[in-house]
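so my prof wants the structure for this chain in the tokens format not the other one, which i didnt know existed until like an hour ago. anyway here's the sequence
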Amino acid sequence: NGYLLGDIALTKPVKISGKGRGVVLKAKAGTNKLFTIRSSQVEISGLLIYMHNTASGAVTFYLDTAALALEHIYLRDLLVWNAFAVLRDAASSSNVIVNLHLSDVLCTYNRGVAIHLTDAFAYTYFKNVTVDNVPSGQLGIPVNFAGIVIENAQGIFFENCDINGGNGYAGGDGFVIKNSAAVYFDACMSDT
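here's what i got, hopefully its the right format
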């Protein structure tokens, strides 16, 4: 059940919404970037996304900062299953992301760093975001990768965010924050 799709480019403001994670999306084999976001004013919510057919390096949500600066990106009420990467940017450093909001997002059965951002410059909010690597370890996937990596941020807020299951592997860290300022944590946990 669900919709089989892959490599979708969002080039205009858009709202994609399921209902309570009731809409199932499955990335087809060969998908490199499930959603490439090349527009400001994008909201994606209410989806259950399976990435198990994708190869190493595939990304669920790719913020294409190599193309342009992005504003007002909202990812809400999402469950992403078996992704190599849930959220990435282009690491361009010439374009930034302002007003990126993630809320009620669960990343589980991960095969790599769930979230790695280098261009999220300001007003970045994570609320009720969980990176659960416990199932990955139970499947024999070595969790030698961090849960969330943020670089070059100037104003990022984490509220009620959890990273679980580094299982004692070297590199299985929770939050990795580099070259950033004004980083706030409220009621967060990193059990790795």
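also thought this was worth mentioning. Helices lie at 134-138.
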